[in-house]
Amino acid sequence: SVPQINRILAHSHHLKQQSTPWLLPHGTISRNKASKLRLPPQSLFNKTIALIFSKRSTRTRLAAETSAELLGGRALFLGKEDIQLGVNESYRDTARVIGGMTQGIFARVGDHSEIEELAKYSPVPVLNALSSLWHPSQVLADLMTLQENKASFRPLIEKESQPTGAPELDRPLTIAYVGDSANVLHDMLVTYPRLGHHLRVASPVQYRAPKEVWDRVVELGCDKGIWWGEDPREAVHGADVVVTDTWISMGQEAEKAERLQAFHGYQVTEQLCREGGAHHDWKFLHCLPRKPDEVDDEVFYGPRSLVYEEADNRKWTIMALFDMLFGKWNLLEEQPEK
Ligand code: CP
Ligand code: NVA
Predict the structure, then answer these.
(1) Which of 165-169, 246-250, 258-262, 283-287 comes out lowest in average pLDDT?
(2) Quick check: is 266 in a domain?
(3) Which amino acid residue places its CA nearest to atom 5 of ligand 1?
């Protein structure tokens, strides 16, 4: 829900502000300052979070492992070669057994039904670390990065910062997504319109969001905030932010040739955004890992690119999720909408 998203983001900013100085190399903080520094909450003390990952990961895994440690607990990485899952054992039995020995499950799966099955039978909370349909923790890091860069999106009416410390984005942004309708985009579709931002998407017709994703978009009333077409130039019109993802997601390697052909002309470049009429100060986001097919080096390594801040923020948002869901379990209680 929107209040939950806002609470997670506020907590992510708080954890980052609180913990970043603490993580600096020894000796770089003055003695005065050091006395005021505080560890993040030790809510995972004596707790273990199972990372059930059936696909590769750099950022999500690193964020999870380092976050669990800072929260005083442990993340146990269980790759597909390590456990019986998928070969000798069902998702149902795996969920019950792993959930019986740990306090939370963060799972990266193939088909989305696999995480549904884990969640159905696990006695402890299950968080999605990426599935065929969704990548919910990614959009949190993207939002956090946009909030931190709010000065780039002027004119803004400065508001007093919230007591929680989350910098508010108090003007609706126009966010353009150019590329494959995959898990990363799907969470943007169900998130940005609810926060009042406008989403403009360009993807080839044959690579549009599947029905179950679109049904959810409509159910949440997000369809009204989304423009969808085939022309990347039209999509970036008026964009404050341009986003893309790989054209070949994990598991789609066999479709490489046809995908490269279908996405011809979708590469994010300065020229494309200039011709399409993006805002002159547009910024760029990409979940990573990146290939030059979908964005050229000039944009990716240029001053518009927020990609490494975005990658860093995977840590603080995942730490907030772990603290709130696995450490304190208070996200499970739905709070009334304000
Ligand atoms: N953005 C992201 O999920 O990266 P990894 O696949 O490396 O975890
Ligand atoms: N769409 C990509 C995202 C990687 C973080 C994939 O699923 O491979």
Answers:
(1) 165-169
(2) yes
(3) 57
What are the residues whose beta carbons fall under 8 Å from the beta carbon of 32, sequence distance 6 or more?
Answer: none
The model's pLDDT over 168-190, given as tens digits with 9 standing for 90+, comes to 786 899 999 999 999 999 999 99
Long-range contacts from 26-31, C-beta under 8 angstroms, 24+ separation: none
Give the active site residue among 9, 287, 306, 321.
Answer: 287
Tell whether 39 is covered by a domain: yes
How many distinct structural domains can be found in the chain? 2
- Taking CA atoms only, the protein residue closest to ligand 1 atom 6 is 57
Full-model pTM: 0.93
242 part of a folded domain = yes
Distance, CA 55 to ligand 2 centroid (Å)? 10
Residue with tokens 């900013």: 13
Query: How far apart, in whole angstroms, are the C-alpha atoms of residue 201 and residue 235?
Result: 6
Edge-to-edge strand order for the sheet containing 226-229? 226-229, 198-202, 174-178, 241-244, 283-286
